[in-house]
Structure formats: C-alpha cells, structure tokens
Amino acid sequence: MEGNDVQKVTASEKVSEIFAHNMSLYMHENSISGNALASRSGIPQKTLWVTMNMKNIPTLDTAAKICSALSVDMRVMISRRLTAHEIQRTKRIGLILDTLISLPSEKLGSAKDIVEAFAK
Predict the structure, then answer these.
(1) Residues 38, 116: Cα–Cα separation, whole Å
(2) DSSP letter (8 states) at residue 83
(3) For residue range 35-61, what is the model confidence (pLDDT) as tens digits?
(4) Nearest 5°: phi and psi at 111?
(5) What DSSP letter does each residue of 18-51 carry, written as one string?
(6) Secondary structure of residue 117 in the 3-state scheme
(7) Over pLDDT 90: what percentage of the chain?
(8) How is the chain split into domains, by residue range?
(9) How far apart are CA 74 and CA 98, in angstroms?
(10) Of 29, 74, 81, 95, which one has the fewest beta carbons inside 10 Å?
C-alpha cells in the first residue's frame, strides 16, 4: 500500500484486520523486523507473525504491548486503515484525544468547530 492511499473501513472489516494492516505498514516503513519488535515488546515472534498475518486476533494486552514498543497510540491504530504518515502521528493524536476526553460536554462543540476549521 502506498503511503498516500487511504482505504475506507468496510462494514465487514474487523478491528484486528485494521490493526494488522497498520502495524505491518508501520514496521515496513520504519524497517522494523519481527525479531526487533519481539525483543522490544516481550511478545514472542510467532505471536507477532500470526497477528500481522491475521491468523490470530491479538488480545488487548498484546496489542497494547505492540503499540507501546512501536511508540504509537493503540486507539488510533484500530480506528481505520491509516497511511504511513498518519501512523507516525498517532502518539500526538492520542495526547490530543486524552485532552478532548477530559473536556466538559459544553466545550466539545467548540473543540469540534476548531478542528474542522483547521481541516478545511
């Protein structure tokens, strides 16, 4: 998949498929081997292989360990298929999400308006 290709999530696409795609893309773009990720995350290389090849659905704990080792935000990594550039920014997006979650309801509308204005 090219770095600029954004694919819409279909109704039948599973979160585990989205995660596997994003994880594989990030590893490829950053030349991270399965062995290196296994070493960083403490997860067996076989578990990583079956996750990346969608032969197994990772537990939330496994996905969290993988994301921590890759320094990416798991919430964003499971949201939809991302581009390589978007994956690079997941940690920052996650920090923004943390701030938004803590806002009172009456301020969320203003935050949404600001974000949408920047997106134009």
Answers:
(1) 39
(2) -
(3) 999 999 999 999 999 999 888 899 999
(4) -65, -40
(5) HHHHHHHHHHHHTT--HHHHHHHH---HHHHHHH
(6) helix
(7) 79
(8) 15-88
(9) 13
(10) 95
Which tokens is 61 given? Answer: 């704990």
**94 pLDDT tier (thresholds 50, 70, 90):** very high
pLDDT at 11: 56
Tokens of 46: 């076989």
The total number of residues written for the chain in this structure: 120
Please give the C-alpha separations between residue 120 and each of 56, 79, 88, 117, in angstroms, as whole numbers.
Answer: 39, 21, 22, 5
Q: Which of 5-9, 86-90, 91-95, 111-115 has the lowest mean pLDDT?
A: 5-9
Q: Which two tokens stand for residue 101?
A: 């979650």
Q: Round to whole Å and give the CA distance between 88 and 91.
A: 8
**Angle between helix 45-52 and helix 60-70 axes, rounded to 10 deg:** 100
d(CA 20, CA 23): 5
